[in-house]
Amino acid sequence: MAKGKVVFNEDRCKGCELCTTVCPNKILTLDTKKINKLGYHPATVTNPEECIGCALCARMCPDCVIEVYRE
Amino acid sequence: MAKGKVVFNEDRCKGCELCTTVCPNKILTLDTKKINKLGYHPATVTNPEECIGCALCARMCPDCVIEVYRE
Amino acid sequence: MKPVFTRPRSLADVTTHYCPGCTHGIIHRLIAEAIDELDIAERTIGVAPVGCSVLAYNYFNVDFQEAAHGRAPAVATGIKRALPDSVVFTYQGDGDLASIGTAEIVHAANRGEAITVIYVNNAIYGMTGGQMAPTTLAGQKTTTSPYGRDVKLCGYPIRMAELLSTLVAPRYIARVAVNSPAHVQQAKRAIKRAFEVQVNDRGFALVEVLSTCPTNWGLPPKKALEWLEENMIPYYPLGEFKVPKEAE
Amino acid sequence: MKPVFTRPRSLADVTTHYCPGCTHGIIHRLIAEAIDELDIAERTIGVAPVGCSVLAYNYFNVDFQEAAHGRAPAVATGIKRALPDSVVFTYQGDGDLASIGTAEIVHAANRGEAITVIYVNNAIYGMTGGQMAPTTLAGQKTTTSPYGRDVKLCGYPIRMAELLSTLVAPRYIARVAVNSPAHVQQAKRAIKRAFEVQVNDRGFALVEVLSTCPTNWGLPPKKALEWLEENMIPYYPLGEFKVPKEAE
Amino acid sequence: MSEKLLMKGNEALGEAAVRAGCRLYFAYPITPQSELPEYLSRRMPEVGGVFLQAESEIAAINMVYGASGAGARVMTSSSSPGISLKQEGLSYIAGAELPCVIVNMARGGPGLGSIQPSQSDYLQATKGGGHGDYRLIVLAPASVQEIVDLTTLAFDLADKYRNPVMIMGDGLLGQMMEPVTFPDEVKKDLPPKPWATTGWKKDRPKNIINSLELQPERLEEHNRHLQEKYARIAREETRWEEYLTQDAEVVVVAYGTVARIARSAVEAAREKGIKAGLFRPITLWPYPYDALGRLAETAKNFLTVEMNCGQMVEDVRLAVNGQRPVYFYGRSGGMVPTPEEVSAEIEKLAYGRCEA
Amino acid sequence: MSEKLLMKGNEALGEAAVRAGCRLYFAYPITPQSELPEYLSRRMPEVGGVFLQAESEIAAINMVYGASGAGARVMTSSSSPGISLKQEGLSYIAGAELPCVIVNMARGGPGLGSIQPSQSDYLQATKGGGHGDYRLIVLAPASVQEIVDLTTLAFDLADKYRNPVMIMGDGLLGQMMEPVTFPDEVKKDLPPKPWATTGWKKDRPKNIINSLELQPERLEEHNRHLQEKYARIAREETRWEEYLTQDAEVVVVAYGTVARIARSAVEAAREKGIKAGLFRPITLWPYPYDALGRLAETAKNFLTVEMNCGQMVEDVRLAVNGQRPVYFYGRSGGMVPTPEEVSAEIEKLAYGRCEA
Amino acid sequence: MQQEFIFAGFGGQGVLLMGQLIAYAALYEGKKVSWIPSYGPEMRGGTANCTVVVSDREIGSPVVTRPSCVVAMNLPSLDKFEDKVKPGGVLVINSSMINREPRRTDITVIKVPATATATELGNQRVANMVALGAVVEATRVVSVEGLVETLRKKLPAHHQDLLPLNQKAIEVGRSFVPSTV
Amino acid sequence: MQQEFIFAGFGGQGVLLMGQLIAYAALYEGKKVSWIPSYGPEMRGGTANCTVVVSDREIGSPVVTRPSCVVAMNLPSLDKFEDKVKPGGVLVINSSMINREPRRTDITVIKVPATATATELGNQRVANMVALGAVVEATRVVSVEGLVETLRKKLPAHHQDLLPLNQKAIEVGRSFVPSTV
Ligand SMILES: Cc1ncc(C[n+]2csc(CCOP(=O)(O)OP(=O)(O)O)c2C)c(N)n1
Ligand SMILES: Cc1ncc(C[n+]2csc(CCOP(=O)(O)OP(=O)(O)O)c2C)c(N)n1
Ligand code: SF4
Ligand code: SF4
Ligand code: SF4
Ligand code: SF4
Ligand code: SF4
Ligand code: SF4
Ligand SMILES: [Mg+2]
Ligand SMILES: [Mg+2]
Description:
The complex is a heterooctamer, with two copies of chain A, two copies of chain C, two copies of chain E and two copies of chain G. In chain A, the strands form two sheets. A two-stranded antiparallel sheet of chain A has the order 1-4. A two-stranded antiparallel sheet of chain A has the order 2-3. By secondary structure, chain A is an alpha+beta fold. Chain A has helices at residues 18-22, 56-60, and strands spanning 4-8, 28-30, 43-45, 66-70. In chain A, 14% of the residues lie in helices and 23% in strands. By secondary structure, chain C is of the alpha/beta class. Chain C has a single domain (24-242), classed as 3-Layer(aba) Sandwich (Rossmann fold), CATH 3.40.50. Chain C has a seven-stranded mixed β-sheet with strand order 3-2-4-5-7-6-8, sandwiched between helices. In chain C, strand 6 (172-177), helix 7 and strand 7 (205-210) form a beta-alpha-beta unit. In chain C, helix 1 packs across helix 7 and helix 3 packs across helix 4 (102-111). The model of chain C has no long low-confidence stretch (mean pLDDT 97). Chain E is an alpha/beta fold. Chain E folds into two domains: 5-198 and 210-237, Thiamin diphosphate (ThDP)-binding fold, Pyr/PP domains (Rossmann fold, 3-Layer(aba) Sandwich); 241-350, 3-Layer(aba) Sandwich (Rossmann fold), CATH 3.40.50.920. Helix content of chain E is 41%, strand content 19%. In chain E, helix 1 packs parallel to helix 7, helix 3 (57-69) runs parallel beside helix 5 (87-95) and helix 10 packs across helix 13 (339-350). Chain E is globular, with a radius of gyration of 21 Å. The chains are: A alpha+beta, C alpha/beta, E alpha/beta, G alpha/beta. Chains E and F meet through helix 4, helix 5, helix 6, helix 9 and helix 12 of E and helix 4, helix 5, helix 6, helix 9 and helix 12 of F. Strand 3 of chain C pairs parallel with strand 9 (208-209) of chain E, so a sheet runs across the interface. The complex binds thiamine diphosphate (2 copies), iron/sulfur cluster (6 copies) and magnesium ion (2 copies). One iron/sulfur cluster (SF4) binds next to helix 1 of chain A.
């Protein structure tokens, strides 16, 4: 069961992959099918239920794209 | 007997008394009867025979007024 | 579910002009968090440098002044002396602070101006297209050190935190990095402390933050984090160089 | 009788404009002695500052350039890079080097420019009539610190030798004084060494010389020597802060 | 008005600034203006103000930027080489429209030059020594009392137009003692500055002090706004003084120290029956082009006298616009023209001049 | 002459300097001239020269002072704010009569402004942004090839007159690529500099590089010497170009980038039967007052076009001296006037203009 | 005769090079040329463009308000420059990256699936050459031979092996231009 | 009526103060006044001088080429300023410090043994007041009462006890002026 939840402000994402790099569960990836307003593939979560809400992704995101919630 | 000798370039002297201060034998003084080209009482030696030629006076003179000779 | 991470209020809700993965953005957020946590937004005045962060005034919900290249510490001094109860911080790059602005930072620090300086060292001139900075590492290639920085000709990269720590007045001087979550947490503590020192002790505080410039380093953002770890940290050791007396 | 002390050849045979008992004159002579002893007069180029020693170009028998206030290290850099085999020295006051010229000295030192810097610290702005310098001691009265230097408002006196010693490139950094024959002898050795470092090692060398300003300190010259001993040396410790490797 | 005091120009300026409500002063020592920082180092603490000796002229002007941006009445001062160092800062201050007062007690140049009085920074002050299209308001007092009066005015104009104001003196004016009186009241009712960065309490838009505008269209917009402001200042604030110009055939044009000397010369000429007059610009920018140009209707010749190699003479030519010949007499390097020299030049023009 | 290459103005300038025998270059990065330090950081080591990135513009200009005083051909470059910082140094260099080349690839101001092209540093360059009475020789190329030619000239003039020479470009000229050829030969026979501080071997008087002269009489003497030199330069080195001016009724006056645009507009006007011509100053100082003034005999109107709010127009007025009306059209803040805009202005003048 | 071009696209698409190749080729054919890049804050990561003028006579303004030909390699470039094309001029669009139709009807629009074609040719980086082929075919600003020759001269020694691929790309690019143009 | 003074001497002789006192006294008597010091490199340790202009009308040039009165407190000052005295003017010399005769014959020379007199009066520092007495007596630029009153106003509170001595010095100084002047 997901202890955490991540919400993306997708149009702010610059596709830098810093979040995907630091997620301990490697559940973040760039959505290569999407192009956002800025012209980048935005980050997205692949297995939301594995999110532990550790917020490491949010802390590393230079563009404050991610909000994190936890039980 | 004097082991040393001091020669003053009198017109360069500014009467600052740094030489008189450091002479170990206290044989230097300002000649208050003279006024040199610069308008100062120049330094002079009172007891030349007591000069040991240590050159401390010359080393402290900011205006390179003093030459020192030794046996 | 409770929010455990949200955008700090003092960080303006806009898209920045920074390149993808540029850690200037992380540092901005840490500053905004410190301002929020200390609840000082309404009396904080920021001073932006000339450098990639020249537009920083758009990114914080606080009053701001834009300084001439290198002169942020002088501008901050003017503000702080005019408004002693304000909280003033400068945000400066390594070209800005460690090159053209050397005199201003040394003397603001020496005077013990009660300001907080966030000094972003990315070992390069980002904004102007990747020229050598005084902090560029030995052998590092840049657009004005095309054969790699030759320390015989240009000297060694300058360590400002250490240099400024020789002064008596500064109350807090630290070096941190933002290339991993753990380092980011450390950086956050240091930055907050640097504001506290201003607010509580009316002292000078500086945090040197090792930061990336993926664009001019010619590296993907993730690799840039690694390059920082492997090349910058060994030369620019992290740590607190000066801490307020009571906490020593 | 043999001469044991005569005027060095490189010291021009003219009357200086310095005040009676001002130790700028002693320092001039020590430099001239070093130049003579190393037999480098024909390839030495001096750089004069703006300060009481602004007319230094008249006092040495070597080519000279007069620099803008604080910029002597940059001027010296230009000369040395143009003429790598020359011997270049700057002669700078504490206002010149430690205040307006902070950036230039820090970066010339950091680049390891092969120049010799003679830094005359008399804790005051002599030439302009005794204003506060960054080196003015705590509590010291000057024409712009009429109530005594308040370290809370203006910071502590700056110790440039220590600050510059944090840099990697400099080969030789020392602090000496010229308030007694023994100190003058030490000063002489340090100054000569600073030239040797340039000639032999092609490295940066700086000697900070504690000096008097009887006029603006408002003291007779002899008292000024004592004031230096009692007030300056405790705060500005004498010694060698950096020495060339082989001699360490 | 208080009792008449004898004061040096530098010190009187400092006192006038304090009474004008200036509470922050940042500067770096330089002859011949050091009495100003020295005076304020004593005076500012008395009124709870800030005297701070900056590490350099550059730091000083940028401290002025910061303090002015924070809403304070603030001043700096220097002399020629130090003013050159402030040019980038001045351009920033003008660009960001910050009110402040800059004093130049000018000395002989170029380079390190001398410490004697000079007017050779005229073009730098009036045409913009810094980059970009900007203007300083430049006030040129001719006596210690006028230093006091124009210093007061300087702060008011600065605030009114959000523009830097330069007081252009010279070493002589700074060092000279003359009787002065000061306004009794210390200025209290300073104009509000809603644009200043004083901390954003969300009761107004966020304030940003800035001269950056990366979009050239918007920077052009900003420049147009500045030019309109400058045109308004030119309309409203141009100041000058005329002395015996009504029927003058030889009009001497001079400002500051030199204007006093020229006035002695004009009087001497009148005593000899020569119809001479004096036109004295008080604002060097905005320059009194129209007023001066109007004199071309009656005057036969214009003689510009300056303590330099010929700088304001360009503005005189622009004002006269070819209607009458414009001559120049100057001394430089710290030399001060004498009334006799100026009289001789006036006579040459009155009795016909051989050389052009 | 070597093969034609397409090169950016900034890079072509660097190569031209190297071929003119410049072996030392000190500068600090700033857009839009950074290609020049970047180019020379590669190129100088190839020819045994020195590229040194200074810690600031101020350090750079003072390094130039030192190297020039030591007898070298030396250059620095920057753009507007950085040039403002060099004003004290420039005054020193002019005062000490040191030859060197300074490049300003100007951008929009005032203050931090923008990085787009501008001509708003005209008055700073030509009237003296620094203190004291001094002059820079100011060369204004209008194409990349002319950048090359004038850079070569700049070094020669600097040495010939012992005077600093400024190359006044703008961001557009620096960034633009055009075909260029270079002189094949690298300059070898540089003029001797017996006054340089190269070490005193007693075979000449001791050399001192200096601008200090505490005796005002002697400083005035020095200023007179400088003024005579400037007068000689004005006589011998004034350069300009005229295009279709012989019968022109509307004379457009423009330099650098804008002159090209104006030429297109003049051609368009001619196609419509309007007698338009172009007067292009190549030396901004010395300014071609006489040549331009002569055109007042035939021209009915003068139109000054600049990328600023009206700076050179003062020199045009001084040249025309009231004989004919002088109009101004300008764009600022980094905006570049288009040929169409200029054509429209020409037409207004040709067909009668309502506003003054 | 004078022609003015704007080449615009993402930073990585080689638009500055396209302009330089045209400028060089025209230079070799004895024309006057000028090339200017966009420079400024938008550089960073975003779009880039350059302006090329090719003329028989001295070039006046190197800045162009109404180019005779625009090459838009991506959508933002089309949005920015479509309106600027001189009436009767040419607009080349990289249809692989642009999914909307141009609005202008008073100009010749040439759609070139440059990116797709390049990918097919085995190297996405020659998309600019594909577009360039179309430009040359449509405007005749230089000869195809001249362009290829220029490429040969300008390709660094260690990249000469790429010449055939580039040449091929140019050829294919030309084929997208309807013969009526 | 306008009178111009130059007071010159060694730094320590109080010449700047002499000028200021005359200026103040004249000011109190309703005159226009200006005072300028020499400033510059010679300041340091060497000689000092100041120029005072007293006039009924606005003062034009505060710089004076031909003063109506020069006070030379030492030899270098006499050497420097003797030639400048306006014909018919007054030259006051401190004969205690100056052992040569003035060359000028077209002016009134007043020799005042100022230093010696001051020493006799018990305080060498009032030599300037002795000379000032002579100046006032010879030029009538201000009244003696006015000068003494000015002194009273300007002496700092803790030095008011010096007033009688200064007053005495002025009086003695006046006595050196021959009644024919
Ligand atoms: C006086 C002046 N000199 C130079 C510049 C050009 N300039 C703009 S930013 C910059 C350097 C920026 O580097 P840094 O401070 O390290 O900041 P970064 O962009 O790396 O964050 C320079 C040299 C300028 N704007 N003004
Ligand atoms: C740009 C500039 N600023 C200020 C001055 C004035 N000035 C001349 S010397 C000096 C300071 C001298 O003090 P220091 O360097 O300590 O030398 P010292 O006279 O004590 O030997 C100053 C501020 C100047 N000439 N130029
Ligand atoms: S909160 Fe932690 S687990 Fe969840 S996505 Fe972010 S990094 Fe991964
Ligand atoms: S770190 Fe932020 S900007 Fe980067 S990819 Fe992740 S969400 Fe996007
Ligand atoms: S040499 Fe020595 S003993 Fe002789 S006078 Fe000098 S200090 Fe005195
Ligand atoms: S130290 Fe030199 S200047 Fe001073 S009194 Fe002695 S001899 Fe004279
Ligand atoms: S250039 Fe470098 S420092 Fe600047 S925004 Fe891009 S990545 Fe960040
Ligand atoms: S003022 Fe001071 S430092 Fe200058 S010469 Fe006199 S004593 Fe020496
Ligand atoms: Mg950086
Ligand atoms: Mg000093």
